[in-house]
Specification:
Layout lengths: L4 E7 L6 E8 L3 E6 L1 H5 L11 H4 L4 E4 L8 H4 L10 H14 L5 H4 L2 H11 L8 E3 L2 H9 L7 E2 H4 L4 H5 L6 H8 L11 E7 L6 E2 L10 E8 L8 H14 L7 E6 L2 E7 L11 E4 H8 L10 H10 L8 H17 L11 E5 L2 E4 L38 H11 L4 H14 L3 H7 L5 H19 L3
Antiparallel strand pairs: 1-2, 1-5, 2-3, 3-4, 6-8, 7-9, 9-11, 10-11, 12-13, 13-14
Helix pairs in contact: 4-6, 13-14, 14-15, 14-16, 17-18
This protein binds adenosine-5'-triphosphate and magnesium ion (MG).
């Protein structure tokens, strides 16, 4: 037995809260209908695939099928059903407190629970979609935010998040009461959405903004889980810096301590200088809206390049530039020891009608950690495979050249990019050696693996 469910989707694109449409979920499918008023505005909608221009006022329907009960852009507002997911645990704890009940094992991984989480944390998160149970809740949420206030972490927040983070629980009640329901952020690393002074981190924090708030900038605060990933904050900063030096757009960021825990505050790329959401969507959400994907690495880089050209839905405006970007990103990831450039670590933002890959996020050199030590989470250029007509497996260098071809690059362009990025990353090993908080074993692994990649890429062919 199940009950159909209804919710409303609002957005603050262009500044003012506006209802976008109605969401309806049956036991078989999810359905969404744009409001006529919203269609008049000619604004982006649920996502690049489920865009108003393709559907107008016709109801969009999608079969519920693992892993998506909902439209991918909406599903991505719900933290995944992993037991150790920080955001999901936070939301569950909040529900427990609010409803004075216990969740059983079956509850925790059920769609009913997903839905409850969506109702409390499906607004004010990453991106431009705000989901609410009904219009009244939405209007109240937008209209009754407490005046924005920046507080010193040490004085007013009387909870020890540090203990909470080192798994778990004792102070969570206080945390929830202090911070309230937190908007959802995906991914494996514990993080909070907050706001800080426009001039940068100075130890004061506020809740994420809900309207234009002069002098305040929205950030993602990522914590270091020192036991699992020692030194990851320093590594992520180094990777951000290397990307900046290599010519990529990187948001501002500040290393900091939050109640004694190392953390990094990163400016949100999905908000403009008026704290207004920009339309943004991960590649996972975009692709899964059109084709069947089982998880966020269930694809090939070459197919992304192909989709950029051939997809019936345009998801980047400058396709040539986007394919070149993709090639450079994968190369940079390999040169800086990040094998984790999956579909949720690539996003498209739409700014003044121009769709392009967002600023860099999550470039952490994960190969430093044994459990993530892989060259690449998704295949490219048939590396290590033996395609028809081949007698040997494809080498790294050949695979890179083949992927470059998928990205529309000539041999000369490819050679130039490789040479340039090798040059831009030449002091990577030396800089890794100098890091203070990364254990020697992890440094050694990272240096060894990235040196091996450099060597293979520098080989003549
Ligand atoms: N600066 C940012 N601005 C806006 N959104 C961001 C930013 N950084 C991260 N995000 C969003 O939050 C999600 C999770 O963040 P991030 O990828 O940095 O963390 P993660 O937990 O390390 O992820 P993973 O599971 O890939 O390791 C991203 O997929 C992205 O949608
Ligand atoms: Mg990520």
């Amino acid at each position: 037995m199940s009950t159909d469910r209804e919710a409303v989707v609002w957005t603050r694109l262009r500044g003012q809260p506006k209802r976008m449409g109605r969401l309806y979920v049956t036991d078989q499918e999810c359905r969404f209908t744009y409001d006529d008023d919203y269609l008049q505005l000619s604004q982006p909608g649920l996502g690049l695939v489920y865009a108003p221009e393709f559907y107008g006022s016709s109801t969009i329907s999608r079969q519920r099928r693992e892993p998506f009960d909902l439209f991918p852009p909406i599903q991505s507002l719900i933290p995944p059903r992993q037991r150790d997911n920080f955001q999901r645990n936070l939301a569950l704890k909040y529900l427990q407190l609010k409803q004075d009940r216990k969740f059983t094992q079956t509850d925790i991984a059920s769609f009913d629970t997903d839905w409850e989480i969506l109702m409390i944390s499906g607004h004010g998160g990453i991106g431009h979609l705000d989901v609410f149970a009904d219009d009244e809740t939405a209007e109240h949420w937008y209209g009754h935010a407490l005046p924005h206030e920046l507080k010193e972490i040490s004085d007013d927040l009387s909870f020890s998040l540090k203990q909470f983070m080192t798994w778990f629980e004792e102070d969570i009640d206080v945390f929830i009461r202090t911070v309230g329901p937190t908007p959802s952020v995906g991914g494996a690393i514990p993080k909070l959405l907050l706001s800080i002074p426009e001039s940068g981190w100075d130890g004061r924090i506020g809740l994420p903004t809900r309207k234009k708030t002069p002098g305040v900038v929205d950030i993602v605060l990522k914590f270091e889980q020192t036991t699992r990933y020692p030194g990851i904050i320093e590594l992520e900063m180094l990777a951000l810096e290397m990307h900046r030096e290599a010519g990529f757009e990187v948001p501002r960021y500040w290393p900091c301590f939050f109640k004694g825990m190392p953390a990094i505050a990163i400016e949100r790329f999905d908000r403009d200088h008026n704290n207004t959401p920009l339309c943004s969507e991960t590649l996972y959400s975009i692709l899964a809206s059109g084709i069947r994907l089982n998880n966020h690495y269930d694809y090939r880089y070459d197919l992304i390049a192909q989709a950029i050209d051939l997809s019936p839905v345009e998801f980047v405006s400058d396709t040539i530039e986007a394919k070149k970007y993709l090639f450079k990103r994968l190369l940079m990831a390999m040169l800086t020891g990040n094998g984790d450039l999956h579909l949720e670590n690539l996003s498209v933002t739409c700014c003044n009608g121009v769709k392009a890959f967002s600023k860099i996020y999550d470039p952490a050199p994960m190969r430093a950690y044994a459990q993530h030590d892989m060259l690449s989470v998704m295949p490219f250029g048939e590396y290590g495979e033996m395609p028809d007509g081949y007698e040997e497996t494809i080498t790294l260098k050949d695979a890179v050249m083949r992927f470059a071809k998928s990205c529309g690059l000539t041999k000369t362009e490819t050679a130039d990019i490789i040479e340039q990025l090798i040059l831009k990353t030449q002091d990577f090993s030396a800089r890794v050696s100098e890091l203070k908080t990364v254990p020697d074993e992890n440094k050694r692994r990272l240096i060894e693996k990235t040196q091996a990649v450099r060597k293979k890429l520098q080989q003549q062919w």
